[in-house]
TrEMBL record:
Native source species: Actinoallomurus vinaceus
Recorded superkingdom: Bacteria
Ranges of residues in domain Metallo-beta-lactamase: 32-196
UniProt cross-references to PANTHER family, sorted A to Z: CONSERVED PROTEIN, HYDROXYACYLGLUTATHIONE HYDROLASE GLOC
InterPro entries documented for this protein: MBL_Glyoxalase_II, Metallo-B-lactamas, RibonucZ/Hydroxyglut_hydro
Protein name (Swiss-Prot/TrEMBL): MBL fold metallo-hydrolase
Classification via Pfam families: Lactamase_B
Amino acid sequence: MSYTGDVEVGGPPDMRELPGLTITKLAVGPFDNNAYLLRCTATGEQVLIDAAAEPERLLELLGDAPLSRVVTTHRHQDHWGALGAVVDATHPSVVAHPDDAEALPLPVTEPVRHGGTVRVGQNTLSVIHLRGHTPGSIALLYGDGDTPHLFTGDSLFPGGPGNTWGDATLFGRLMDDLEERVFGTLPDETWIYPGHGKDTTLGRERPHLKEWRARGW
């Protein structure tokens, strides 16, 4: 079956095979978080995006292949609830933006900023800093030809930007970053992998930017 990105807590993962990279999506925990395991097809090296919850399921997903890094997209606890257990079992580098690092339960050993990179074997993810949901929220971009793949944490979902709790300043900052750094640079074909729920594409969301601005959330 082809990849859909539709996963449920307690259910099986969904896998997508790209040139050079395999993406496995798993839903975990009481807040229906998405964890993404990226595997380099050439080297077998793996990177986990958001060790959110249910460490035993995440470790089962890893199998016997090495885990080189765990990336935390932002500081909220539902995105790092299993970080300690996964790191204790596999000893990877801990990756996050410095502006959110102090809230994590473990020291960040590989800090990343806007324009930085994260390696997955022979592949490179580009770091996009999206301020607003938290000060140090990041997205990770894998450029695969005409169809880039973007892991957005809680900064972009189907239907709008992440929560900014009615704060007009935070909302404006997040929208500015999304419009400049995501919608302003990436094509409609870009596949969006959010921190919760179903996937989407930039093309699906782009027509609604003015609507989001007007509603203020």
